Design the sequence.
């Protein structure tokens, strides 16, 4: 009885305290009606980009960008200063582009969290008078289902992964671009154009490419790694970290077997799965987020990770070695498109052109940690970071995009992947 | 003498286990003062993370969401669960037993199942994911705590008390307010308290039913653990820990014999 | 008579909110899960109305059966350890003086009010390479290089036991608190050795507490996938992990639903056995 009573008093105190806290952190901003009104329009917009935390991200870009955002600030800052000194010409061009008719309108930008440096977003609003309503999704598939529900409306500009854009275009949810409206269109690196998801470049503008590499710490790994096959070396026992993307990881085994990432032959996928099982003893961990931190802290000696994670790992520790696997290189592209019934397509064009600018593009890629898809931007990227953001000249041999495959093949990949993960737990 | 010998090893065990329970918390607290962002290295004492914490609106927004969610769901569960327990105790209703069992399913199933079914169901009926879906889901697993506690309390109550009151002319409502409610209040409050604690700490269900821009504190911490904890999160958890400890001390003080004695005077 | 009918009406009215809520948000979703498990996936996220056993047959794949086995094994290991650690704690605590009993209870509750995730993160700090434990062991000269303790099975078990042991402690405590110490004394006075007195008197009387502790530990441990996720480096694949992946990554909702149905059936079986064994559904400690 006495404990019961005591608990009550504790409860009352707790409830009081929580009420107090609610009032404390929530009451203040809402107290002023004008602030509250402004908040409904503005709070969801640009602030969302800076303050919202990443949802449990497994999608490559979202996971990677938040990581890049946290560690590359120094690099980005140094680049911004160089850009600032060389930028006047391009800034003038952009202000000339500012269309008075668009002033005061709103751009509904729909992409992962943390895809743009805050300066770029603020700069765009300052120069064009267009407010940005930054809405984020966690997975490509969320975006697709939202866009399907909205029947191609609601959003003005979407940036997502290549494979989902193929579906978006097939479903008629994207509109053809009028490239004449993009003064900086010629800046795009043609190496990333005319890909499977948009073979004639009618709908999309690429924004950053992920390139599959191996990164390792030579002091923690006794062997030299030149390709995927080396990852099977017993010297790497319990020392390898992988991302959780099964197309990429199963793809390593496919590449070792000399097959394509996109094979739909179930027998070959199965064979790759068998090959992958032999890799299990070397696996120390599998995770999508912050894998680079485990490489930096010495939990793992080598890793296969997202491009931006490689970028931030090497920025932090230049002793790390990045390898383009000799068996072949997988890559993916993030690209922007304008939905078929975009309420304010004009603002979308203005924003696309704004980020296609060479100096601003460089800022974006430094912030993102993805390979530059903007050739003109390359000269604005700091020499020390060039290797991490720009592919070597003439480097397009042996490259293959990871594309959509049949449902049966996807299911087989999934099965093989689960078998592999289960095998890693047996160590 | 004999009891002394008996008690000591057991006290040692209690102390050791409690120490182990506090060990990870101790590390979280220590690293909230770490100058380095990487928790792998200790590079000096700083209070910067607390300063940053108070500038981080999203963290406080998540805290506020969690408190609002916990309060709304535990209050809703308090009302619904109490009414149901009282109703079921008063009259044998058709299907009452089955209903009572079904309503406690949410705490009898692993959380992942609840997360999965709510995610599927809410998208089926087209509810927008956000605070509303969170409150519904949390209320669903909060009701059983209140319901079961009140039910157990009612079972131990002397029914004739309320009956006597009614026989003496008290109205149904009066008998409830004056007799039954005060008697079951402790059970209601501890059920709600438990529900609040569960809601405040829930990750699995929340992750599935939240919207893109509604973070609760556990969701925020979960994504931070995955995407890299900054000592800012340690700082927040340190503050929460000390708030909890203060409440613990408060309730210990309020319940101590000396204060109890003064109250009765 | 009239008052009786009126009383029934009032009772019905009082019960109604919970009936409606349970119907709409417990039975409805669970029924949909069952229906969904017989449907077929289609498109990126979608499902197609259909009646197929494909999803259940898919669970028959050796790798998924292995996952269920892995989950059960971890749940049993966790429950066993929780019982071994929690029982003496709850029992000893009940035998303290009231003053110390309350202090102990508060010490136990305070961590419970702190974020469980953050406490897990504390274990990460302890276990990580060159982390606290490594340094301690190296300082003591027990090892000369960092042990790789994080992302291992034992690390997962520690996390699970840590998260669930309070439930066992509360259950055992509330059982043992009611125990009449006079009985033990009497047994001792009659010449029974201490261990014998405990085994024949105290242990049977605290079994209800252990029983509800087992339920309160076992059921959550079947679903706590994020501990394996955080402390196990994703290598310990549990049913919860599978469901989460099917929902969020593979987008095969019907398969996720079928997995959930089987998991639900397993835990219900466990509950059924518990009820049969104890002849009651009440949970000591919770209630």
Sequence:
């Amino acid at each position: 009885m006495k404990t019961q009573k005591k608990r009550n008093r504790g409860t009352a105190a707790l409830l009081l305290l929580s009420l107090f806290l609610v009032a404390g952190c929530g009451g203040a901003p809402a107290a002023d009606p004008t602030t509250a009104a402004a908040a409904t329009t503005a709070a969801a917009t640009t602030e969302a980009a800076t303050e919202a935390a990443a949802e449990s991200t497994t999608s490559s870009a979202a996971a990677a960008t938040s990581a890049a955002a946290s560690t590359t600030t120094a690099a980005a800052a140094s680049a911004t200063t160089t850009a600032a000194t060389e930028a006047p010409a391009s800034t003038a061009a952009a202000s000339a582009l500012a269309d008075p008719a668009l002033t005061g309108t709103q751009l509904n930008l729909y992409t992962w969290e943390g895809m743009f440096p805050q300066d770029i977003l603020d700069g765009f609003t300052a120069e064009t008078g267009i407010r940005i309503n930054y809405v984020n999704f966690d997975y490509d598939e969320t975006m697709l289902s939202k866009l399907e529900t909205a029947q191609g409306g609601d959003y003005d500009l979407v940036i997502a992964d290549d494979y989902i854009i193929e579906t978006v275009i097939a479903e008629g949810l994207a509109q053809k671009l009028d490239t004449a409206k993009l003064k900086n269109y010629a800046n795009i690196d043609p190496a990333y154009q005319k890909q499977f998801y948009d073979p004639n470049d009618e709908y999309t503008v690429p924004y950053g490419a992920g390139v599959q590499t191996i990164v390792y710490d030579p002091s923690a790994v006794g062997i030299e790694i030149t390709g995927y096959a080396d990852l099977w070396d017993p010297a790497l026992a319990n020392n390898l970290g992988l991302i959780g993307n099964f197309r990429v990881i199963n793809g390593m085994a496919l590449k070792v077997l000399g097959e394509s990432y996109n094979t739909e032959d179930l027998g070959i996928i199965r064979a790759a799965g068998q090959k992958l099982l032999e890799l299990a003893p070397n696996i120390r961990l599998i995770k999508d987020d912050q894998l680079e931190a485990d490489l930096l802290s010495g939990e793992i000696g080598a890793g296969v990770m997202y491009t931006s994670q490689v970028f931030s790992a090497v920025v932090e520790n230049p002793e790390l070695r990045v390898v383009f696997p000799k068996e072949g290189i997988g890559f993916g592209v993030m690209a922007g498109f304008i939905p078929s019934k975009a309420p304010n397509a004009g603002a979308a064009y203005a924003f696309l052109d704004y980020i296609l600018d060479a100096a601003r593009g460089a800022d974006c890629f430094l912030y993102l940690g993805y390979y530059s898809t903007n050739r003109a931007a390359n000269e604005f990227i700091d020499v020390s970071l060039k290797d991490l953001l720009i592919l070597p000249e003439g480097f397009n041999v042996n490259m293959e995009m990871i594309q959509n495959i049949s449902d049966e093949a996807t299911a087989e990949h999934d099965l093989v992947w689960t078998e592999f993960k289960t095998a890693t737990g047996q160590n | 003498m004999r009891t002394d010998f008996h008690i000591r090893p057991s006290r040692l065990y209690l102390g050791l286990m409690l120490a182990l329970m506090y060990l990870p918390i101790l590390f979280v607290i220590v690293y909230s003062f770490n100058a380095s962002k990487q928790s792998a290295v200790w590079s000096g004492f700083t209070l910067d993370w607390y300063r940053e914490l108070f500038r981080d609106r999203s963290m406080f927004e998540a805290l506020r969401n969690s408190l609002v969610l916990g309060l709304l769901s535990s209050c809703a569960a308090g009302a619904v669960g109490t009414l149901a327990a009282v109703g079921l105790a008063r009259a044998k209703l058709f299907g009452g037993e089955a209903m009572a069992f079904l309503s406690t399913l949410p705490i009898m199933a692993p959380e992942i199942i609840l997360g999965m079914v709510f995610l599927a169901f809410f998208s089926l009926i087209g509810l927008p994911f956000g605070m509303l879906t969170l409150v519904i889901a949390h209320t669903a697993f909060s009701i059983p705590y209140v319901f079961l506690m009140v039910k157990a309390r009612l079972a131990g109550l002397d029914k004739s008390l309320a009956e006597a009151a009614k026989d003496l002319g008290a109205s149904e409502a009066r008998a409830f307010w004056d007799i039954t409610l005060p008697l079951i209040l402790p059970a209601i409050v501890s059920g709600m308290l438990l529900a609040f604690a569960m809601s405040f700490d829930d990750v699995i269900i929340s992750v599935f039913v939240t919207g893109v821009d509604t973070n609760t504190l556990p969701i925020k911490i979960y994504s931070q653990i995955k995407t890299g904890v900054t000592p800012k999160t340690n700082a927040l958890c340190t503050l929460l820990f000390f708030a909890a400890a203060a409440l613990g001390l408060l309730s210990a003080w309020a319940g101590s014999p000396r204060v109890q004695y003064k109250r009765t005077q | 008579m009239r008052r009786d009918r009126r009383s029934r009406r009032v009772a019905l009215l009082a019960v109604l909110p919970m009936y409606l809520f349970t119907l709409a948000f417990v039975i409805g979703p669970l029924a949909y899960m069952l229906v969904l498990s017989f449907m077929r996936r289609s498109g990126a996220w979608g499902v197609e109305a259909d009646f197929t056993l494909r999803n259940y047959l898919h669970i028959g794949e050796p790798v998924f059966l292995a996952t269920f086995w892995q989950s059960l094994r971890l749940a049993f290991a966790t429950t066993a350890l929780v019982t071994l650690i929690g029982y003496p704690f709850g029992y000893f605590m009940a035998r303290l003086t009231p003053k110390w009993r309350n202090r102990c209870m508060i010490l136990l509750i305070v961590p419970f009010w702190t974020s469980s995730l953050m406490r897990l993160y504390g274990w990460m700090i302890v276990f990580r390479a060159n982390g606290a434990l490594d340094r301690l062991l190296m300082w003591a000269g027990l090892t000369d290089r960092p042990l790789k303790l994080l992302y291992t099975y034992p690390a997962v078990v520690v996390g699970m036991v840590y998260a669930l042991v309070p439930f066992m402690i509360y259950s055992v405590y509330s059982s043992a608190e009611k125990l009449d110490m006079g009985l033990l004394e009497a047994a001792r006075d009659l010449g029974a050795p201490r261990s014998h007195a405990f085994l024949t008197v105290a242990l049977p009387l605290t079994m209800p507490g252990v029983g509800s502790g087992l339920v309160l530990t076992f059921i959550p441990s079947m679903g706590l996938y994020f501990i394996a996720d955080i402390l196990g480096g994703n290598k310990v694949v549990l049913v919860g992990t599978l469901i989460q992946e099917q929902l969020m990554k593979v987008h095969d909702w019907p398969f996720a639903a079928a997995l959930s149905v089987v998991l639900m059936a397993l835990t219900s079986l466990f509950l059924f056995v518990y009820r049969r064994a104890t002849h009651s559904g009440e949970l000591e400690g919770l209630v």
Remarks:
- Chain A touches chain C at residues 2-3, 6, 56, 58, 139, 141, 144-145, 164, 167, 238, 244, 283-287, 297-299, 407, 410-411, 414-415, 418-419, 421-422, 424-425, 427 (CB under 8 Å).
- The two ends of chain A are 52 Å apart (CA to CA).
- Chain A has 17 helices and eleven strands.
